[in-house]
Amino acid sequence: MKKIILALAIWSISILEGYCFSDMDDHWAKLEVEKGVSKGILNGYEDGTFKPEEKVTSAMVYTVLDRIFEKSEVYKDVDFVLSLDGVENSMVRLLESFESLDGLYEGNDQNIISEIKDHKNKDYRAYVTKDGLETIKNFKKYMKNDINKIQSLKQKEYVTKSEFIKDIEELEFSKAVLNVKGSINMGETKMDSENIKMMSKFTLLMELPKFENVIDEKLDKNHWAYNSYSRVAEFINDENDNLNKIARNGFDNNISREEVFYLINLSLRKLSETYESFTKVADLESYVAEKQMLTMKELSRLVENKIVTGETVNGNTTYKLDRDLKRAELVVLANRILKYDLENK
């Protein structure tokens, strides 16, 4: 009787934790799926099934990669509060420079302006036009307001870097810089609107060189996977823009093995400093990149690092890059990425 009760208890725990699926008993990836589910990589369905042979969508892949990166703690490298401190300090320095403009002539007397240009005026060393003076006054007002606003932004929990940049661009000073008109004449130095924009934007964003926005703004921001896509896109920062090309096909569209392997290759390059230095080329006789995303060298790295395995058919190894990826395969790949990341910390 005790054995029966113990067995029922174990079975109940496995059901509650989501490890036991009615359609996984004889499946080749049963143990891998159970391992992946226990790590929170992918969940089953409410009807008690996992649907291991169901084709995955790009939304699922972005979500799984996002969860892998969270477990690897790579997102902690971005310190938004520290960056806001940098923006605040830059703004304070710029405000101080505007407030320390002494010996400044504010008027339109051309005789005085000529004396200033010729360095002959004893009272003034620089002058500013009426438009320029109004610009300086507005800049000072906006910066004072923004310095206060930044304090509240420091309490905000940002999901993505692009969200952070958007808040910076919404600051009063940022918008004023983009819309500034006229010029400021400081002695022999004349700054037109474009000079002011360049100088101010550089001063404001000089603390944020790594925050380049790589998010495709045309994608559906209301989709449940959008935040995961955004974080993954920013972390991977795909120079070839293939990550966004995949996303543009639709978050709910199926995704091929080649496309998934491509994203995994980019992910491993970011997770491990040594991954890209791996140069051995595997013997891939059947290599065919249908979408021309994945190179033979990139697939070789995945194969030699035991992330991807081929399938032997009639004595030949094939990777079926053109075939859509399935849920069971996605979990297996995720487990291997986590294992590789753990071993190469």
Explained architecture:
- The structure is a single chain.
- The chain is mostly helical and 345 residues long.
- It is 52% helix and 6% strand.
- It has 14 helices and six strands.
- α3 runs parallel beside α12, α4 runs antiparallel to α6 and α4 crosses α9.
Mean pLDDT value? 78
Overall helicity = 40-55%
Termini separation (Å)?
Answer: 48 Å
- Encode the helix/strand succession as letters: HHHHEHEHHHEEHHHHHEEH
Gyration radius, in Å: 29 Å
Q: What share of residues are in beta strands?
A: 5-15%
Protein topology:
Elements: H1 2-17, H2 30-38, H3 58-72, H4 80-99, E1 104-106, H5 110-117, E2 126-128, H6 130-153, H7 161-169, H8 172-179, E3 183-186, E4 189-192, H9 193-205, H10 226-236, H11 242-248, H12 257-271, H13 296-304, E5 311-313, E6 316-318, H14 327-343
Observed structural traits:
single chain; 345 residues; mainly alpha; two-stranded parallel sheet; two-stranded antiparallel ribbon; elongated; disordered N terminus
